[in-house]
Amino acid sequence: MAKNQVYTKSYHPYHSPDDPCPDPGEKHYSTPPHLYMGFQPEKLPQFSPKEALQKGTLWPALYDPYEKNQKLKG
Amino acid sequence: MWVYEKKLQYPVKVSSCNPQLAKFLVEQYGGADGELAAALRYLNQRYTIPDKVVGLLNDIGTEEFAHLEMIAAMIYKLTKDATPDQLKQAGLADHYVNHGEALFYSNAAEVPFTATYIQAKGDPIADLYEDIAAEEKARATYQWIIDMSDDVDLNDSLRFLREREIVHSQRFREAVEILKEERDRKKVF
């Protein structure tokens, strides 16, 4: 997967013409990479120790930086 | 037994004087999917799970206490210099009346922590599935707190904690796979 990829899916809930608020459009939800991994394969690339301590994981394949309001922006 | 390191797992820095963020963060302190619930849940389940995954529960349960300590540091930094009036503005009047400046194990709505937040079913698969769900719920809680917070430094620490939930969930999923793999193996007792 591409670096810095944002792991989200989206859907568009029904918006009635009678609904009082404007249609916010797409709703987004997080689907982080571990959902697709199964058993972690051996010998995956690693971050440097310093980078890993900063990011919270040693594994680029498990890295999913969440951005503020990612849910709304996607 | 534990060995204590007198430092946080990840630095905690708070850049804005915003006690309201403390009110949100309490959810991860003493809420249903918070770090206290996680630590107690995993460490307690260690005794009745196959040997192969006891170490995992031990390690993750221990790390949850390190996360609890980070959350505590955040809440403390956000509230320690606030006046009672500022706490009132932040929606923390009820907390102040009951606890003063002390931290307490409750959720964001001031509901005190309860052991009913956690479960120990004694069935390895049921327990690990609960653990996976707990990690995903904690991950979501961090997302919603980040959404509510404009504090860049605080969000940096919260992003670290959210990433740890992802890694923990992955390891619990692998633990389920380890326990499942026996299916095609002849097991003679």
UniProtKB/TrEMBL annotation, chain A:
Positions of the UniProt region annotated as Disordered: 1-35
InterPro entries for this protein: Spore_coat_CotJA
Protein origin, superkingdom: Bacteria
Short name of one Pfam family: CotJA
Protein name as catalogued: Spore coat associated protein CotJA
Organism: Fictibacillus fluitans
TrEMBL record, chain B:
Xref: InterPro entries: Ferritin-like (IPR012347), Ferritin-like_SF (IPR009078), Mn_catalase (IPR007760), Mn_catalase_dom (IPR039377)
UniProt-listed Pfam families: Mn_catalase
SUPFAM superfamilies: Ferritin-like
The family this protein is said to belong to: Belongs to the manganese catalase family.
Protein name: Manganese catalase family protein
Organism from which the protein derives: Fictibacillus fluitans
